[in-house]
Automatic annotation (TrEMBL):
Residues 7-53 form a coiled coil. Gene3D superfamilies: Uncharacterised protein PF10928, DUF2810 (3.30.1370.150). This is Uncharacterized protein. It comes from the Bacteria. It comes from Vibrio variabilis.
Amino acid sequence: MSMKQELQKLNNRLDKCKHKLDGAKSRGDNELISRFTDEIDKITKKIAQMKHKQSYDMNKERKSLLDMPFSREITKAEQADMGKTEKVSKRLSCGSPND
């Protein structure tokens, strides 16, 4: 099961427990209230751990991608664009209107 699916399952369980806790509070059933508050605390802690692990893994992957060298050949169209840009910038810096 993927981490995303497991997080979704935990969130669903947390939602169910919260609804059941509301019902138990309205009835005044102290045993169920304590059981569901414990369950909610446990699920909340598990969700926080999973989210932390998920962000840790994502940051680790991001760092490894950023550390990779990037190099590729420049296409002829890109070379032509660079040449045009160079000419325009020279024209602007020199001040000559037509080149």
